[in-house]
Design brief:
This protein is 54% helix and 10% strand. The protein has 19 helices and 13 strands. The strands form four sheets. A seven-stranded antiparallel beta sheet has the order 4-3-2-1-7-6-5. A two-stranded antiparallel sheet has the order 8-9. Strands 10-11 form a two-stranded antiparallel ribbon. Strand 3 and strand 4 form a beta hairpin. The longest helix is centred in the C-terminal third of the chain and has 51 residues.
């Protein structure tokens, strides 16, 4: 019998506990035989692999979840989103792994099948072996100790101050030549290390290999994050991004621009200039500012290298301006290169990257360039059409002497004429295109030059002014203003989001669930998807797979979720979210159903609080439409809670009325067989005591008399 075949036979035999005693005894004997065969085939290590596989398939947690959903669908919970939201629960990073294998994870003296994965940053594993859900991880910097134990066992001790709170993880390498797979549908458990079943020493060697690999990976990460270059880069970034440093750089830029203006006004380089004595000082100051800006550029580049620096357009602008200034300074005596000195005037634009108000204006203008350019191209096309029509209609115009009038002689001349008309400017040596010169004979016989109005040209120019100047150019201005306003509103929305995040951070000082709820609100579309996500979250939090989650498991589990900022759950928060112990059992634990109720209620409360914060921001921005809309949404959410409470109250009153009616019928007709049996209290015959089988009772909604346990 193969190793995995024996494991499956033993698991199938033990699963018969819900049948008749005879069948259970038969299946129990088969389980014992399968276990013996498994041990005989592969040894103790393979037998532990069979036990780990069986325990992973038959925990109370999995049985509880299987009653309400498909476990295969559970592993895709909270993966929905807009495509840009990072998952709340990450899959196992198999593609980034340095080493991976399937081991037995020992929890409370029970072995569970677990796929282990070592990356450059952490040790990850998926309890149960489904790589779509990473149930736990240990950052390498928080690995306190890794040691090999006896008989292929080895353990990882986490740091007491880390996210795992000093938890000790114990593993045992499996010894198998076949692949262990999940019993339910879904991704298979990856194969264990492929070696001969007779090679029992390989298990012990593998333990030592894992210990060495984890220790080496921890040392490499420590060198990456705590090397001299890494610490120096972090220090440079902190200094450069500080407000005093940015203010100092802005003052230097403004001072340099003032010196450039003085140089352009005094012109000390001109012969016989009365300010020639200032030239020496201006040149020295130019060298000083250029060197300061070069140092500042390298400081910025080193602190933000590589992605942050390249993705910032103001950093690229600094590189261009400072580079051209350095070239102009190094080639002062080269003919023709001195024109680069005029680039110094562009340094003042760097202020836009330092001051928020200027940055907002420049950003809005830059965002408006492309839409304005599209509208401007349309205006140019219409003006060109009018130029072509002008050449066709008025190219043969002549003056009183028979000389041709050059206003519409060619396309370029016609476009130039129309440009003068649109700019409302006429040069003195040129006449108005709408006037046609003529010769008039005076009474004394003298010929006098006069002008007559060419109404055809006048009509042509009026059409031009209306279509281009009054319509299209106004469209260009309107597009410019519209995009400028949109860019400004975008900046204001970003600031509003920042204020909203600050308002949410005020709720995090005691370690609430707001980051988790904020993440959850973007990762589902339907109630069914929310159920899958909550089940997957419960699966991750229930470390020992007992089917219940206590305060310590919840506190340690939410620390490892992909939330920002990291959640630090306190006992006061746990007491609040569990409704002061109403959702807990007598051991102070949450079942899956109660956990689902808790998360749905907290998500609804988060939405209500979020609407309140957004309403406050809308009132501050004086946006009446948004205020009304948000107020209506907030009222609908609150009213929904009140309606639900009223529905529950009406249902309870209806159940009590039905029971009283049944009780009355039973008293009047004791022999009626259609009524359920009702037993009466010895103290009072007017208040019946319901049997546990009474359909009127709802064991899921009764009051929990147990108070929450004291804080750990």
């Amino acid at each position: 019998m193969g190793a995995v075949g024996a494991a499956n036979a033993m698991a199938a035999a033990i699963r018969g506990k819900g049948q008749s005693p005879g069948a259970r005894n038969t299946r129990g004997n088969r389980a014992v035989q399968a276990s013996k065969s498994y041990r005989d085939t592969s040894g103790d290590n393979t037998a532990e692999g069979a036990e780990a596989l069986y325990n992973s398939r038959n925990t109370h947690l999995r049985k509880t979840l299987e009653k309400h959903l498909n476990l295969n669908d559970m592993h895709i919970g909270f993966e929905q989103g807009d495509g840009h939201t990072t998952p709340l629960i990450e899959p196992l990073p198999l593609f980034d792994s340095i080493k991976q294998t399937t081991v037995a994870l020992i929890i409370n003296n029970k072995s569970f099948s677990c796929h282990l994965c070592l990356t450059k940053e952490r040790v990850c594993f998926s309890r149960g072996g489904d790589h779509r859900t990473m149930t736990d991880y240990i950052p390498l910097e928080e690995v306190d100790k890794v040691e090999a134990l006896q008989e292929g066992h080895w353990s990882i001790t986490s740091s007491p101050d880390g996210i795992n709170s000093g938890r000790v993880y114990e593993f045992r390498n499996l010894h198998s030549d076949e692949t262990l797979t999940q019993s339910q549908e879904g991704a298979p458990v990856p194969a264990t290390l492929n070696r001969s079943t007779s090679d029992t020493s390989g298990v012990h060697e593998e333990s030592g290999i894992w210990v060495n690999e984890i220790m080496q990976a921890r040392e490499r990460k420590h060198l990456r994050e705590h090397s001299f270059m890494a610490r120096a880069q972090k220090w440079c970034r902190f200094i450069y991004d500080s407000n005093p440093c940015q203010i100092f750089i802005a003052v230097l830029i403004f001072a340099n621009f003032f010196i450039v203006c003085v140089d352009a006004q005094a012109r000390p380089d001109e012969p016989n200039s009365e300010y020639a004595h200032l030239g020496y000082y201006i040149d020295k100051l130019d060298v000083f500012f250029t060197c300061i800006f070069i140092v500042e550029l390298f400081f910025n580049m080193f602190g933000h290298w590589f992605v942050d620096f390249v993705q910032n357009p103001w950093s690229i602008f600094d590189v261009v301006v400072v580079t051209i200034s350095a070239i102009a300074l190094a080639t002062t005596n080269v003919p023709g290169v001195s024109v680069l000195r005029s680039i110094r005037a562009l340094r003042v634009l760097r202020l836009a990257g330092k001051l928020r108000s200027l940055k907002r204006i420049i950003t809005a203008l830059m965002a408006s360039i492309l839409p304005v350019l599209n509208a401007f191209v349309i205006a140019i096309i219409v003006a060109s059409i009018f130029s072509v029509l002008g050449v066709e209609f008025f190219k043969n115009r002549v003056d009183a002497n028979g000389e041709p009038i050059n206003d519409f002689l060619t396309f370029a001349r016609a476009f130039y004429t129309l440009f003068k008309v649109m700019s409302f400017q006429v040069w003195v040596d040129e006449g108005y295109p709408v006037l046609k010169p003529t010769n008039v004979t005076a009474s004394d016989g003298e010929i006098i030059q006069s002008f007559t109005i060419d109404f055809l040209v006048l009509f042509y120019l009026v059409c031009l002014v209306i279509s281009v100047l009054w319509v299209l150019l106004q469209v260009v201005v309107a597009v410019l203003l519209d995009n400028f306003v949109q860019a400004t509103q975008k900046e204001e929305r970003m600031e509003a989001v920042k204020r909203l995040n600050d308002a949410e951070d005020a709720n995090l000082k005691t370690g609430g669930l707001e980051p988790l709820l904020k993440k959850m609100s973007n990762l589902f579309d339907t109630s069914q998807q929310l159920t899958f996500g909550i089940a997957r979250l419960f699966f991750v939090l229930d470390y020992d797979e007992t089917g219940y989650v206590n305060f310590q498991e919840l506190k340690e589990g939410v620390k490892k979720l992909n939330c920002e900022p990291r959640i630090n759950l306190q006992w006061e928060d746990f007491n609040i979210v569990t409704e002061h112990g109403e959702l807990l059992n007598h051991r102070g634990e949450l079942s899956f159903l109660k956990f689902d109720v808790m998360m749905r209620k907290q998500l609804k409360v988060y939405v209500q609080r979020h609407l309140t914060d957004v309403l406050a921001i809308a009132q501050r921005s004086h946006n009446i439409e948004n205020q009304v809309m948000i107020s209506a949404l907030r009222f609908m959410v609150l009213q929904q809670k009140e309606d639900n409470d009223n529905d529950k109250l009406r249902q309870r009153v209806k159940r009590i009325g039905d029971r009283l009616k049944n009780l009355t019928n039973f008293v009047q007709d004791p022999g009626g067989g259609h009524l359920r049996r009702v037993t009466f209290n010895s103290s009072s015959t007017s208040s019946p005591e319901r049997s546990p089988m009474d359909g009127g009772g709802n064991p899921g909604t009764h009051h929990n008399p147990h108070k929450p346990p004291p804080p750990p």
